[in-house]
C-alpha cells in the first residue's frame, strides 16, 4: 500500500496486519525520509520519530523495515533545525548511520558510541556545539568518513578522549577518520589519551589543526591537508604536548606522512613526544616567524624528518628553561629547505644529539641567511652531506660544546662559511677526519704567555697543515709556539714570529703524524721576546685555528 508521507501513515485508523506500507516521503514525496513500514499491534515501544512511530491508538506501533544502515533523513530532520537528538538516536539503533547530501544542523555535542560508522555522502554538519562530535573513554573501533564539519569559529570539531592509565592511554582507541573535512573551527581535532587513531585523506581548514595531548599514542596521519583558516587568527597546525598538571607522561608514537601544513604561526609545535616520524611532508611558513618548533619540557626524544620540504622557515630546537642537557636524538634527512629567511636550523642552549644530513638548503635572495646555529652548550650535533645556496654563513657553533661535526658541505663560494667558538671536527667526503677548526672570538685578548687556541682529536697518519688565520694585533714583540702530542713532528720549525705588515695574517706549520695515528691535543702558545704585558695578542672577527690533513 502506498502512503504519501509519515503523517498520513500515522493517521491510519485501522492498520492492516501483515501488510507493508510504502511511504513516499517524511513530509513530502521524494524527500528521502520515507520507506517501508508494517504495523505491530502488540508493541508498546517508545516512539523515536524514525524507526518506531506511534499510531492513532495508544497501543501498537509502526515499525520501519530496514536491514543494515540508518539514514538520518528518516527522522524528519529539517534544514537549520537542531538534529542532535535524532543523530544520537540513530547511532544507538544501528552500527552504520548515513548522512546524505544536505546540511545537518546541531547545537549539542553528539557522542559516538563504540563500533559505529558515521558516513557522510556529501553531507555537512553545521554546529555551534563544543565539541561537535565526541568519542569518549572506553569507546573503540569507530569510523567517521565522508563528512564535512563546519563550526562557529572557536569550537572543536572532533574530540577523542581516553583515560590517563599509567604510562599509556588504554581507552578511546582504534578510531578511523577518512575523508573528513573541517572548516571554520577553533580546533579541528583534539586527542587526549587517545590510542590507535588513523587520519586518512582528511582536510582541516581551521584556526588550529590537531592537538595531540597527554598520553595519546600510536596515531597515524596520512595524505592530509592541514591549512590555516585565513578568516581568523590562527594558532598551530599540529601541537604535541604532555599534561604537566597531573602525573606527567609523554605522548608517543606519532607517524605523519604525505601531509601538507600551510601558513600557521607554527605549523608543527612539539613540546613533548617520544618517537615521531614525519615523512614526505610539506611545511609552508610564508610570512610567518616560525615553521617547526621543537621544545623540550618533559621529553622530546626520537623525532625523524625524512624527505620533507620546509618553505620560508626551518626548524627551531628550543628546550624550555633547561638546567641540564636535553637529548633530542632527532634526525633531519634528505629534506629541502626552500626560500629560507634567517636561521634554517636553530639549536638553542642545552639541545643535544641532532643530525642534519643529505639536505638541500636554498636561502632567500634578500636578507642574511645562516644554515645552522648552535647557541651554547650543544653536544653531538652533526651537519653532513648538505648543499647550500644563497647563504651568508653555513654553520655557527657558539659558546661551548663538544663532539660536534661538519662534513661533506657544498656551498656557493663563501670565504668564511663557518664560525666556531670551540673545536668542531670537519671531515672529508670519505668520512675520515680531515680538518679540525676552532674560531677565536672577536676582540679576544691573550695573555703574554699562554694558550691561544687548542684542538683535541684523533689524527690519522699523514701530513697536516696547522694554521692560525685572521687579523691579529700585537702590542709587544712576540712569537707563537706550536705544542704537539707524542707521535707528531713539526717539519718546518716550531716557532713563528708575527708579521705585522699584513692584515689579515696566516701563520702555519706542517706536521707529520705517525703512521699509526696520534691522539691528543695540539695547541698554539704565545710567547714574548721581551717583557710584555697582558693583551700581547688581540683578534678581530672570524679568526680561526685549523688543522687540515694534506696527505
TrEMBL record:
Gene3D superfamilies: Single-stranded right-handed beta-helix, Pectin lyase-like (2.160.20.10)
Highest classification ranks of the organism: Bacteria, Pseudomonadati, Bacteroidota, Chitinophagia, Chitinophagales
InterPro entries: Pectin_lyas_fold
Organism the protein comes from: Chitinophaga arvensicola
Domain of life, per lineage: Bacteria
Protein name: Right handed beta helix region
Amino acid at each position: 500500500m502506498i502512503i504519501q508521507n509519515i503523517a498520513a501513515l500515522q493517521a491510519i485508523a485501522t492498520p492492516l496486519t501483515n501488510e507493508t506500507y510504502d511511504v513516499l516521503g517524511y513530509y513530502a514525496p521524494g524527500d528521502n525520509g520515507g520507506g517501508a513500514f508494517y504495523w505491530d499491534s502488540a508493541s508498546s515501544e517508545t516512539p523515536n520519530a524514525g524507526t518506531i512511530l506511534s499510531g492513532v491508538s495508544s497501543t501498537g506501533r509502526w515499525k520501519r523495515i530496514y536491514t543494515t544502515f540508518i539514514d538520518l533523513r528518516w527522522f524528519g530532520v529539517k534544514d537549520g533545525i537542531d538534529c542532535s537528538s535524532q543523530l544520537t538516536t540513530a547511532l544507538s539503533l544501528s552500527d552504520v548511520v548515513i548522512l546524505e547530501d544536505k546540511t545537518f544542523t546541531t547545537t549539542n555535542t553528539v557522542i559516538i558510541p563504540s563500533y559505529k560508522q558515521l558516513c557522510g555522502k556529501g553531507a555537512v554538519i553545521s554546529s555551534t556545539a563544543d565539541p561537535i562530535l565526541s568519542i569518549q573513554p572506553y569507546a573503540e573501533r569507530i569510523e567517521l568518513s565522508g563528512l564535512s564539519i563546519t563550526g562557529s569559529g572557536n569550537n572543536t570539531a572532533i574530540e577523542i578522549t581516553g583515560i590517563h592509565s599509567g604510562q599509556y592511554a588504554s581507552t578511546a582507541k582504534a578510531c578511523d577518520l577518512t575523508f573528513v573535512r573541517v572548516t571554520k573551527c577553533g580546533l579541528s581535532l583534539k586527542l587526549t589519551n587517545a590510542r590507535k587513531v588513523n587520519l586518512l585523506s582528511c582536510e582541516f581548514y581551521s584556526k588550529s589543526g590537531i592537538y595531540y595531548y597527554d598520553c595519546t599514542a600510536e596515531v597515524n596521519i596520512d595524505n592530509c591537508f592541514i591549512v590555516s583558516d585565513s578568516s581568523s587568527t590562527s594558532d598551530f597546525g599540529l601541537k604535541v604536548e604532555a599534561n604537566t598538571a597531573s602525573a606527567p607522561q609523554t605522548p608517543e608514537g606519532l607517524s605523519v606522512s604525505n601531509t601538507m601544513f600551510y601558513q600557521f604561526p607554527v605549523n608543527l609545535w612539539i613540546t613533548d613526544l617520544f618517537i615521531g616520524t614525519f615523512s614526505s611532508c610539506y611545511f609552508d611558513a610564508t610570512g610567518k616567524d616560525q615553521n617547526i618548533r621543537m621544545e623540550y619540557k618533559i621529553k622530546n626524544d626520537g623525532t625523524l624528518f625524512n624527505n620533507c620540504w620546509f618553505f620560508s622557515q626551518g626548524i627551531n630546537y628550543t628546550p624550555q628553561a633547561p638546567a641540564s642537557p636535553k637529548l633530542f636524538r632527532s634526525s633531519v634527512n634528505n629534506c629541502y629547505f626552500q626560500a629560507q629567511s634567517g636561521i634554517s636550523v636553530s639549536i638553542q642552549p642545552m639541545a643535544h644529539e641532532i643530525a642534519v644530513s643529505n639536505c638541500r638548503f636554498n636561502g632567500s635572495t634578500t636578507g642574511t641567511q645562516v644554515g645552522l646555529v648552535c647557541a651554547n652548550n650543544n653536544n653531538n650535533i652533526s651537519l653532513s652531506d648538505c648543499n647550500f645556496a644563497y647563504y651568508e654563513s653555513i654553520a655557527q657553533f657558539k659558546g661551548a660544546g663538544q663532539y660536534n661535526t661538519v662534513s661533506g658541505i657544498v656551498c656557493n663560494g663563501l670565504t668564511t662559511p663557518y664560525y666556531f667558538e670551540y673545536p668542531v671536527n670537519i671531515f672529508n667526503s670519505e668520512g675520515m677526519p680531515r680538518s679540525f677548526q676552532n674560531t677565536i672570538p672577536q676582540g679576544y685578548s691573550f695573555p703574554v704567555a699562554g694558550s691561544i687556541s687548542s684542538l683535541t682529536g684523533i689524527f690519522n697518519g699523514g701530513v697536516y697543515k696547522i694554521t692560525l688565520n685572521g687579523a691579529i694585533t700585537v702590542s709587544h714583540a712576540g712569537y707563537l709556539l706550536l705544542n704537539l702530542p707524542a707521535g707528531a713532528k713539526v717539519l718546518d720549525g716550531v716557532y713563528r714570529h708575527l708579521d705585522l705588515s699584513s692584515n689579515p695574517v696566516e701563520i702555519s706549520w706542517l706536521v707529520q703524524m705517525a703512521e699509526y695515528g696520534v691522539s691528543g691535543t695540539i695547541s698554539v702558545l704565545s710567547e714574548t721576546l721581551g717583557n710584555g704585558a697582558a693583551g700581547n695578542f688581540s683578534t678581530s672577527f672570524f679568526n680561526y685555528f685549523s688543522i687540515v690533513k694534506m696527505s
